[in-house]
Amino acid sequence: QVQLVESGGGLVQAGGSLRLSCAASGSIFSINAMGWYRQAPGKQRELVATIITGGTTNYADSVKGRFTISRDNAKNTVYLQMNSLKPEDTAVYYCNADLSPYSGSIILPFNNYWGQGTQVTVSS
């Protein structure tokens, strides 16, 4: 069984900072990409940032220069440092991982896993 558990959300004033964390645990053989998505009320879920095992990152244009994604491969943990937050960053932030679990001695195919989400609210 695989779990992704996010932490670090909360309420912050515009211009402030928050750091999100997401730890993947369970029967994990290998993790390829990890990332963050967000969903604001009435809107579709959108990509925020991703990072692959080698360290290559990708960001949504709306967060470039303000958000930084990083990863600790030894801990199966991904972070999102969010600076210069804006009210439009308000959303539920979801952690995502493309990983291969195992069951006993069997390595299972890569699949997509999601965390439960953490609320980020930026007040003006």
Care to count the β-strands? 12
Q: What is the first-to-last residue Cα distance?
A: 40 Å
Q: What form results from the Cα inertia axes?
A: elongated
Distinct helical segment count = 0
Output the radius of gyration: 15 Å
Low-confidence blocks of residues = none
Helix content: under 10%
Report on the biggest sheet. 8 strands, mixed
SSE ordering? EEEEEEEEEEEE
Structure description:
The protein has 124 residues and is an all-beta fold. The protein is 0% helix and 63% strand. The chain has no helices and twelve strands. The strands form two sheets. Strands 2, 4, 5, 6, 9, 10, 11 and 12 form an eight-stranded mixed β-sheet that branches. A four-stranded antiparallel β-sheet has the order 1-3-8-7, with no helix packed on it. It is elongated. It starts with a strand and ends with a strand. The mean pLDDT is 97.
Features:
124 residues, mainly beta, eight-stranded mixed β-sheet, four-stranded antiparallel β-sheet, 63% strand
Secondary structure elements and pairings:
Blueprint: E1 2-7, E2 10-13, E3 18-26, E4 28-39, E5 46-52, E6 57-59, E7 67-72, E8 77-82, E9 91-103, E10 106-107, E11 111-114, E12 118-123
Parallel strand pairs: 2-12
Antiparallel strand pairs: 1-3, 3-8, 4-5, 4-9, 5-6, 7-8, 9-10, 9-11, 9-12
Short overview:
This protein is mainly beta and 124 residues long. Helices cover 0% and strands 63% of the residues. The protein has strands spanning 2-7, 10-13, 18-26, 28-39, 46-52, 57-59, 67-72, 77-82, 91-103, 106-107, 111-114, 118-123.
